[in-house]
Amino acid sequence: MEHIPSFFHRRVTRRDFLRLLGALAVTLPAWSLAGRHAHAGQTNARRKKGIKGDHDLVVAEGADPYATTVRAVEALGGMGRFVRKGATVVVKPNIGWDRAPEQAGNTHPEVVAALVDLCRTAGAGRVNVFDVTCNDARRCYDTSGIREAAEAHGASVYLASDWDVVKARFAYESPMEGWPIVRDAVACDTFINVPVLKHHGLTRLTIAMKNLMGVCTGSRGTIHQGIGRKLVDLTDFISPELIVVDATRVLLRNGPQGGNLADVEHRDTVLASTDPVLAETFACSLVDVDPDELPNLVEAKARGLGRPDLAGADILRLKA
Amino acid sequence: MNMNRLVRLRRFSQILCLVLFVYILWSTTYPLSGLLPPETFFKINPLVMVMTALSGRVGLVGLSAALVLVFLTLVFGRFFCGWVCPLGTMLDVTARLVRRDRWRRSLRTGRMRFIKFGVLFFVFVAALAGIQAAWVLDPMVIMARFVSLNLIPAATRTLDGAFVFAMTTLGLREVLIDAYRWLRESFLGIQVPFFAHAVVILLFFALILSSVALAPRFWCRCVCPLGALYALAAKAAWMRRLVDICKHCTLCIPRCRMGAIREDMTYDKGECILCMDCVYDCPQHGTRFGIIARLPERRTESGPGISRRNFLFLLALPLATLGRRVFAGTPARAGVIRPPGALDEEVFLDRCVRCGNCMKVCITNGLQPLMFEEGLEGLWTPRLVPEIGYCEYQCTLCGQVCPTGAIPRLGVEEKKRTRLGLAVVDRSLCISWAHGQECLVCEEHCPVAEKAIKVTERRTPSGAVVGAPVVDPELCVGCGICQNKCPARPDRAIRVQPLSA
């Protein structure tokens, strides 16, 4: 018995036992409260800051995705308008698929790299790049080239975790009420939505609003039922400060992941805007699609989420 | 104390090999950037390599490496069992924990040691008859399955859980999140793997470890077919135990973990695993190991002494198994989805050694161990369970880590054309077909560039038009991502049927 450490055979007195119970009675509810707080839902405090660009939409054309992106954002008023010093910025590209840049299933890595650079130059404290992917996340991050490009320019690129979420809360009744959203997408100072324009079987095209499904975890397949309404509510919840649409090369058929280079055409265009409806409507015109074919765009127009008329908007076209 | 230098050296080697073994399996994951090939310990395993090659009538890459081990055994004896084998090390560690008293009497295994030769013989005759039975009791396979399907999942689950607990409940997210993200992408792997009925694999492993209650290394003395193979080779080994001074104190006899030292102080060279204990147990310091010109052996051991009746019995067993296959016509059924490019079912069952490498490496965790769904022969072979994980279109990992080529190494383009099954839409469950709602999640995820899932316009009773999925059997490769992502519950509305179903 002498080998056994003394605390194993120390007698537990009644006092000891009651003390233990008392300690548990204090700590357990505290833990459970802390846990509940960690899982509490929240509304987005960042919403409706109302930052405007110098133009409603900038359409930059150029063969170099990096330079074109820089020109588009600068023409809109510069990144300093959206990112204050020390800010935590989310750059949310589409990294959904295990596809190479030329297959046009994901945002072009150079577009992402340009935005990361602009954020860093504007003084961002931290630039987070992530996506909740459809294929295996490691393969998507690697094959898309986005991990390498964004990390090389100083971004934190990481895989989203399904426990690290907040539940979406809405001021109105929403089918997205309580949906788990990656915490960092909400807990940031600036959210930059960087979709790639491409074909989609259900929504005809996937652009900015559909790209936001990449901040949702959970069983995302059910978002597809009544998708227009859900994507608009999601866009309203996240309220990205800046939307940069990658239309450098466009997957015209067999989206959203493609794979066949014959389905890809060059448009050499990058759009920058603060208005998701205007950006998406213009993007439709790039590929000759009627905006009314997009259920989310129809819903967004009806809800007044942005301006749908290309004719009345202040659109700056430039060549990079 | 420099006295037990050799014992310490042996222990160092054992721990190094065990760590290496676990490291190799731990790094058997995307993107396979480990320092050593994932199948290293199988390629140097003559039992698995020779018997699989023999039963399949094929030359296997790695056969030569395995034969090098046999050659080394011809020089040094059963060093592999004492210095390398990770299962042997686990048994030693367990024995040390359970049998604190080294003097505790062991079961006198005596002639029970011939059981392992019987096992080896059975495996050999089965291989001649075209049936690969080496996997059943091969120590490397047993250990690998335990490490890949029990140990690593348990370790990663515990670590991951501890981090998540600290970050959510304890509120340490800001402090730990960056370290956690780094860990997840390097050491932990992205997902905590789950394996169906892994507990059965654990119980099997625990049963083997519990044999130390009978005698330390009971498994190695009496059961292990790889040990038997090495024992046969070791009988001819150059290096041997030399006793210069002996006062017949017999101290070494009960302390020999292999029970290799006889009452007359001679020893069985085939049983000695060169643990070096007897060198230091000898109060006379009169025992050593060395290479010396042949000593007159006082008693010669003549291999596995089995009777003619036993021989015929052993011969009959595998032949009977074969006969059942040939005459009863075992259906090459594969009522399950096999990994991409897996050999024809009957060949696959013989080639697969059930090491679990493919399941460990599977990037989506979709490859799962079978129980008896494919009959007794299918035990612990891999199947794809699309509900858990689909076959990633451009991933070729399982073929790259298979030690025997049961799953071939495919190039990416070849893999993308390789069929695993065929997806079938169940229109009575489909959200679009049965409920007239928009969905097309399956079509969205279909990785085939031309889309194996086509959209057909369907008019719902209320007059609305929705797109509904239809599978093109010409294009579908059966990867199962549609089944994995289908939002219909509890049963998925699109399911992959195995090829032969």
Q: Concise description?
A:
The complex is a heterodimer of chains A (320) and B (501). Chain A has helices spanning 14-38, 65-76, 109-121, 137-143, 146-152, 183-186, 208-211, 227-238, 276-286, 295-303, and strands at 41-42, 57-61, 88-93, 126-129, 156-157, 165-168, 180-182, 190-194, 196-200, 204-206, 242-251, 264-273, 315-319.
| Mean pLDDT figure of chain A | 92
Overall SS class of chain A = alpha/beta
Spell out the helices and strands of chain A N to C: HEEHEHEHHEEEHEEEHHEEHHE
Placed side by side, the strands forming the largest sheet of chain B appear as 1-2
Largest interface: A-B, 38 and 40 residues
Number of helices, counting only DSSP H or I runs of 4 residues or more of chain B: 21
Rounded radius of gyration of chain B (Å): 27 Å
Helix content of chain B: 40-55%
Break the fold down into its secondary structure elements and pairings.
The complex is a heterodimer of chains A (320) and B (501).
Chain A: H1 14-38, E1 41-42, E2 57-61, H2 65-76, E3 88-93, H3 109-121, E4 126-129, H4 137-143, H5 146-152, E5 156-157, E6 165-168, E7 180-182, H6 183-186, E8 190-194, E9 196-200, E10 204-206, H7 208-211, H8 227-238, E11 242-251, E12 264-273, H9 276-286, H10 295-303, E13 315-319
Parallel strand pairs in A: 1-6, 2-13, 3-4, 3-8, 4-5, 8-11, 9-11
Antiparallel strand pairs in A: 2-12, 6-7, 9-10, 11-12
Chain B: H1 5-26, H2 40-43, H3 46-56, H4 63-76, H5 79-84, H6 86-98, H7 114-128, H8 139-168, H9 173-185, H10 198-209, H11 218-222, H12 225-234, E1 239-243, H13 252-255, H14 277-281, E2 287-291, H15 308-327, H16 345-351, H17 357-361, E3 367-369, E4 382-384, H18 397-401, H19 412-417, E5 421-425, H20 441-445, E6 453-459, E7 465-471, H21 481-485, E8 494-498
Antiparallel strand pairs in B: 1-2, 3-4, 5-8, 6-7
Helix pairs in contact in B: 1-6, 1-8, 3-4, 3-7, 7-12, 7-15, 8-9, 8-10
